[in-house]
Amino acid sequence: MGLPKLAITPAKPDKLRALGVIALNGMFDEMDALGVLRYAIEEVLPGDIAIVSSFGADSAVLLHLVSQVDRALPVYFLETGKHFAETLAYVETLRQRFGLTRVTALHPDPADVARFDPDGQLWERDPDSCCHIRKTEPLEPVTAQFGGWVTGRKRYQTAERGVLPHFELTSDDRIKINPLAYFSDSDVNAYKAQHGLPEHPLYDKGYKSIGCAPCTSVVAAGEDPRAGRWRGFNKKECGIHFDFNGAIAKPMIGQKNLWKDGAFTADPFRAWAETDSPETARYAHVPVDVFLRNRVAFLSNPHPIGLHVSPADQVEQVEADLLRFASIAIAFPAFTDGRGYSTARLLSERFGYTGEIRAVGDVLADQVPLMRRCGITAFVVTHEPTRRALESGQLATVNLFYQPVGTTEVPVGTRPFLRRAQ
């Protein structure tokens, strides 16, 4: 076929690339799942594509197709720590049956689980946040390495998926491939029967769509196959899928501005909005005065929240409630305003806060080493030279201390070997 290969990571949205995706969707018959998958792997994104599989009720169909094209295709499974034991066994069954050589389990960050879900019941209080830390966060840095990825989504599953095409161009100019988009439930079952594919152990027990155990229930006769997912919640998707029409989940952010643990990463937090409710807000940095006015409501709110500290705020006012915050954002409105350094030292040294302390505002390369000395562990950076300096590891270092911080720095001009033992 003569369609030119598409550029993988353009610097900005490419209209020709979008037209190419439209052309791709016109090239294949609705039921030509194998043709769609083969062309995506061999022609559109050779060596730059992966598959994300839930190893759920219908996963055998897509993985069987993959085995016919490339058994070495990277296959990622989100091991949330909440799966049925039967699902974990099914992963091994399909891996061996289809000869898949690169099946990898992705686990949530233990620190995130300890902070946001210490009792393991976050799924019940806030399923969106549970999916975020157990699925979205582990998956994003992996999919960012590829120009595209394959999903098992189908049009019949939900109303939002009713317009799903074979090929999607995402907001960050990557390509999602949905080979089974036009398959119906009967098509899936017919394919399984034709090829003698092993069923998920729970399928015959009434589980027609299978995710994490706490959020999956049996589907009654006549119900939508996904009716058993998040039953009782106003929730239809886990959040890892984002469509061309934005109807399923919000698009990924094109540029990641949060520098943390040595890399720019997706930022789950946002600024507080006037329309937010203290009772239901989640992943928002709440201004100190707003928190104090609505303290009882925020303390009873089960969702993760952060605190936003401006230069004029007295962080001492919230000392007793610091453990409530998953992140504290300290504002640096201008390069010359140093009050945020004192706030950071109060939090980390005097109050013993061990969560994320981030700098927001006028964050420049010269400041970052000083901020780190004061206990700041994350930085929201929009200044392009500072971004480059962080990514290349070319920040200035501070080796001489006239005003030492903490207990390990020694001021210039002293002779610590002559000091008396403390």
TrEMBL record:
SUPFAM superfamilies: Adenine nucleotide alpha hydrolases-like (SSF52402). Catalyzes the formation of sulfite from adenosine 5'-phosphosulfate (APS) using thioredoxin as an electron donor. Residues 49-217 form the Phosphoadenosine phosphosulphate reductase domain. This is Adenosine 5'-phosphosulfate reductase. The active site is at C238 (nucleophile). GO terms for cellular component: cytoplasm. It is found in: Cytoplasm. [4Fe-4S] cluster binds at C130, C131, C212, C215.
